[in-house]
Amino acid sequence: MEFGKTYDFKEGERRIYTRWEESGFFNPDNLPETHKEPFTIIMPPPNANGSLHVGHALFVTLQDIVIRFHRMNGRRALWLPGADHAGFETQVVFDKKLEKEGRSRFQMKREDVWKEIWDFTMANKKIMENQVRRLGASCDWSREKFTLDEDIVSVVNETFKKMHDDGLVYRDLRVINWCTKHQTALSDLEVKYVEREDPLYYILYGPLTLATVRPETKFGDTALAVNLKDARYKKYIGKEIIAEGLLGKTKFKVIADEVVDPQFGTGVVKVTPAHDMTDFEIWTRHRGEIPEPISVIDERGRLTAHAGPYAGLKVFEARVKIVEALKEKGILQKIDEHYIHQIATCYKCGTVLEPLLRPQWFVAMTKEPLSGGLSLRDAATSALRKKEVRFITKRFEKIFSHWMKNLRDWNISRQIVWGIRIPAWYCDRKCPPTITTGKNPEKCGTCGSAHIAQDPDVFDTWFSSGQWPYATLMTTKSFDAFYPTSVMETGWDILFFWVARMIMLGIYRTGKAPFKDIYLHGLIRDKDRQKMSKSKGNVLDPLGVINEYGADALRMALVVGNTAGNDTVIAEDKIRGYRNFATKVWNIARFVMTYADNLPSEPAYSEGDEKTLKEFKAIKKEVTRYIETYKFHNAAETLYHYIWHTFADKIIEEAKPRLLSEDQKEKDAARALLYEILLDSLKLLHPFMPFLTEDIYERMPHKKTSDILMIEAW
What we know:
The chain has 714 residues and is an alpha/beta fold. The protein is built from 20 helices and 25 strands. A hairpin with a 2-residue loop joins β7 and β8. The longest helix has 28 residues, at 632-659.
């Protein structure tokens, strides 16, 4: 093939990727016999609900660097791709689509909603996979998986049943985080806390005064609580008081609980166990001593019949009316207008969450399985302590360990349509649920009744994606060869959502941590260090960038300056700069290839040539070490500076007079020197700029071990 005067990346990238796929070498089973030791990366499955953004381009680039490096080093490298149905995230995206169309899923049949979301997701999934290809991902598409594949769903259900039989999964009535907009429960990790200034209301409860930001929940009060060490209220502990309320006089028992902060308000708090997690825990500790929880707010965020004349009002409008009524009745003592506190909101829509008492499915995080062994939490922390898993930066080990100490049970049920339906079945006689591996049972497992119905809830998407490493390998018959995987590379922002849960579930289901190394990259920010988002209008479309500058330029721009766990800045100027570098490499190769015919097999290198090659050997070792230790930015920067400022500016310039020499040995030595450095530079650069390097390599006459650079020996 001839060298064009300029590098046509638009033609080259499509042609080269087709050649890679046709070679079959993305599949480790097709690699040469010399590739024996496995090396595995399971791709974090992007949400199949929209196009990829630059953050996705970053993870594709970093993982492709690693997999290409190890493939060239003779490893049997598997990079398994996939896509995530993304549960609640996709439901939110689809709800917005319906809203624009003047429709709502709450007025649609479940099966109709499912079918529409399926079609929507499948269309996006196809687009997304083509985008991954455009970025140069050398993943094994023959093993590609989707989190709603039937075999993946079967594995997820099997894990659920095993955990239920082990006492690690249970259904219970608890106070949970409820989004009134999306009508579903959320886990603790899906709560976004925001600081807000609200009035703090001081209300008389008989002889006592207490402070609250939520007077509208007073209809659900079942007791008053103080701290046992608070001398001000010792005489009231264990006694009943009578308080004037908006619906008449009410009796409240005063209890002592260590969770009460004597410094908050007056040191007296109302216990509303149906609408506050802390209050619910107080009630569980004083069960039998105080009345059962009373739900005064429903799923729509409106007051229930327990609120009397305020029933049907939304929370905030009810609050205004209730405060006015308290004033009129003379039991509102004062208002502190400037109380600063943290409120829980939905991380997707910003709606203030309602703590509601609802039955949900939970995973016990700190309980030992009935079959024996460590709890999920202890198994994960033990793996870290024994160095069975390793964070590339130590600071994430501390963050991980701190989070594990404060772990609460995980709410895994969601009241949405899109997701894996929980395989629990109920009969009309209120028996315990019948748990299956997904198949519909013919009758209740307790009483034998044939009148059974499946739980309408679906799993939290992180419960299914938390099983991704072993589920994908089990269902592609690759488990024995490629599990545990070698490295998990993903963003630091899903350390707890996903990484921690993969470790816990992986150890529980297989006995081994699902990966050895954990590399967490930072978020992509714009030139003003703002997080990229569609609403801000500062998102760089990776395909738009690729069409303008080429995939290799984008990849280099994403890697250089990007250190583990730290957010990185990306701007168009930076990408343009690496497009210029691609052009430089092309021109270097074009020049060297002008003198590449009939190269000598044993060139007579001068002492200066030997020194140049020795220095280049040191560069090769340095780049190798950087990649092995996940310092991709250092490797990329080293190559950039060597190729441009040493190879092009010095070595080639110094060789030009020799290339015109009448001394054939001198000329041949110069030609061989440039060719050798070019060839090995392409190898070193290949993981970072695979299209450009492969395009140049296939035009070179003197190859060493392969006719395709992707499997050339490092």
